[in-house]
Amino acid sequence: MKITAVIACYRDAPAVPIMHERLVNTFNSIGSDYEIIFVNDGSPDNARDVLAELAARDPKVVVVNHARAFGSQSAFTSGMRIATGDAVVLLDGDLQDPPEIIPEFVEKWREGYDVVYGIRVQREAPKHMQLFYKSFYRVFKRMAYVDVPVDAGDFGLVDRRVVDAINALPETHRLMRGLRAWVGFKQVGVPYVRPERMFGTTTNNFRKNLGWARRAIVSFSYAPLDLITGLALSIVLLSFLAIFVQLVLRVVDPSAAPRGITTIILIVLFLGGIQLLCLSIIGSYLAHVYEEVKRRPPFVVESILNAPPGTVLPAARALPVSDPVAPESARPAPTHVVPPGP
């Protein structure tokens, strides 16, 4: 049995050695062979040097350096594409996903579950952010056309056949927790407490969280489009009702019928606001479709250290770990693009 840990790293250089130590101790405690893939997603700190040194010391550490920051979902995809384990565990590099939970994941996996995800029963975050997260998960569950578990992030274990199924999906704008639910298989959750970052401050903010929410809804829900249909039908019905009332008032009591420019302005503003709302919803779906049809890869790999033996590496040339800081002549050839498929 071999387990691969895929860690998405961005501004996590101080946490990398601690993550490595805790992962090694965890895998040794369960007696499992392991592989640790750190994906440096264009981190602006000294993560590249820290990871190169770690790869030189531990041959079981694979380091993937992206050409720039493509996001955590692309980082997970990058690691999953070259993972060789019988199961893959996804973790954030900031230590908010505690490696000590992995034995519980493995226990459920051995019981026959193909996907074991972490359920955040509590998170150390400001109260307003906790309320925002909990509210969104529940709203999204009602809107999505797949059964996405509430309070579950990317942290979890997926069996090799699930990894292969996700890798085979052609889309580039990915939401791993949604794809994990979409592919199906036998799934179960494990509760845990999500701590705060050990180093630095979170790179998320309210605007980025809204972007995550938008991507999730556009990728796995048609509810906003159904809302547009409902609004259109409602306005048409109200219009017919208003015409009927206007005609009746004109006959019964002409002085009581609405009149004047104020009424016209209010109606125009109301209908204009509804139209702009509908256009923004449609625009979000069109933008998502536009990004997908361009067929750009989800990430670009600059270099790989300790590439798994026998792995096809179309993305880049692997640097030898004996010289992690290679001279210019030994550095990778011009950047190669990873194709969107497996």
List the helices and strands and how they pair.
Elements: E1 2-9, H1 16-29, E2 33-40, H2 47-57, E3 61-66, H3 72-82, E4 87-92, H4 102-110, E5 115-123, H5 127-143, E6 152-159, H6 160-167, H7 176-183, E7 187-194, H8 206-220, H9 223-252, H10 261-293, E8 300-305, E9 318-319, E10 336-337
Parallel strand pairs: 1-2, 1-4, 2-3, 5-7, 8-9
Antiparallel strand pairs: 3-8, 4-6, 5-6, 8-10
Helix pairs in contact: 9-10
Quick structural gist:
The protein is of the alpha/beta class and 342 residues long. It has helices at residues 16-29, 47-57, 72-82, 102-110, 127-143, 160-167, 176-183, 206-220, 223-252, 261-293, and strands at residues 2-9, 33-40, 61-66, 87-92, 115-123, 152-159, 187-194, 300-305, 318-319, 336-337.
Helix content: 40-55%
Q: For the residues shown, what is the average pLDDT? A: 77
- Beta content comes to 15-25%
Radius of gyration computed on alpha carbons: 25 Å
Main sheet record: 10 strands, mixed
Helix and strand string, N-terminal first?
Answer: EHEHEHEHEHEHHEHHHEEE
State the low-pLDDT regions, or none: 314-342
Give the termini separation: 23 Å
| Structural class determined from secondary elements | alpha/beta
Supply the number of helical segments: 10
Overall geometry: elongated
Using DSSP, what is the number of strands? 10
Task: Characterize the structure shown.
This protein is of the alpha/beta class. The chain has helices at residues 16-29, 47-57, 72-82, 102-110, 127-143, 160-167, 176-183, 206-220, 223-252, 261-293; strands at 2-9, 33-40, 61-66, 87-92, 115-123, 152-159, 187-194, 300-305, 318-319, 336-337. Helix 1 links the parallel strand 1 and strand 2 (33-40). It is elongated, with a radius of gyration of 25 Å. It starts with a strand and ends in a 5-residue tail after the last strand. Residues 314-342 have low confidence and may be disordered.
